[in-house]
Design a protein that fits this description.
With 102 residues, the chain is mainly α. It is 58% helix and 0% strand. The chain has six helices and no strands. Helix 2 crosses helix 5.
Amino acid sequence: EYGKQWYQRRVRGTCPYNTDYSLFIATAMLLQQRDVIISRKMNFSDILRYINDLPSKMELQSILGQAEALFHQIRSQEDLPFNIRANILHLSDTPYSSLGAK
């Protein structure tokens, strides 16, 4: 039951890490479609239309996995600017306080 609830929170764009997880999901989607976007030389409007038409064709587990990997990759950076720590990752202004840094 817990696993199902956790999965549903991730799908809705919330994250147990208290962050704007939807940014990581969107980034993962764009990264997975990067080659198509570049090869078709899409502008912003084209990208929006293309991404809006993708939901039935996307592999959700892959996107969520990549989004989580991106989150951990960014969170592990020791020299993140304050605005990223505070506004995107929602960490306190004390560097590395919630990062579990090694």
